[in-house]
Amino acid sequence: xxxxxxxxxxxxxxxxxxxxxxxxxxxxxxxxxxxxxxxxxxxxxxxxxxxxxxxxxxxxxxxxxxxxxxxxxxxxxxxxxxxxxxxxxxxxxxxxxxxxxxxxxxxxxxxxxxxxxxxxxxxxxxxxxxxxxxxxxxxxxxxxxxxxxxxxxxxxxxxxxx
Length: 162
Description:
Elements: H1 2-16, E1 18-19, E2 22-23, H2 40-48, H3 60-65, H4 68-84, H5 95-102, H6 110-116, H7 125-135, H8 141-161
Antiparallel strand pairs: 1-2
Helix pairs in contact: 2-4
């Protein structure tokens, strides 16, 4: 298709760009599968959104590594949602690879920092995945707890902002 050809040319052109002799920090990656962007969903629900707590935000590493069995269950549940939507297993990042990457993720996620900073609205991939999962027949109590916790935190910041 013409649009894919344009995207692939943009990908190539961006790869060729350098600033002061170094690669630019942002890349464009074109994938044949529409589901590659969904590969982030398990990571977001297992780590990023679980950085939000009733108290201070925690690091992504802590949110994932503090209970490996639960993290693996959440990751698997979200993977199954993506697969039921038509994604392929090879579109996804395996839990073990993600777990290894969390060793370096020592700060809270941007969504947790935003909520802790008083944001009254944030991107709600957690709620989207919960809703789609229910429509696909996949639910997990930890996802429900995360959504409820974020709903409550946002409601508190909205009240204090009013």
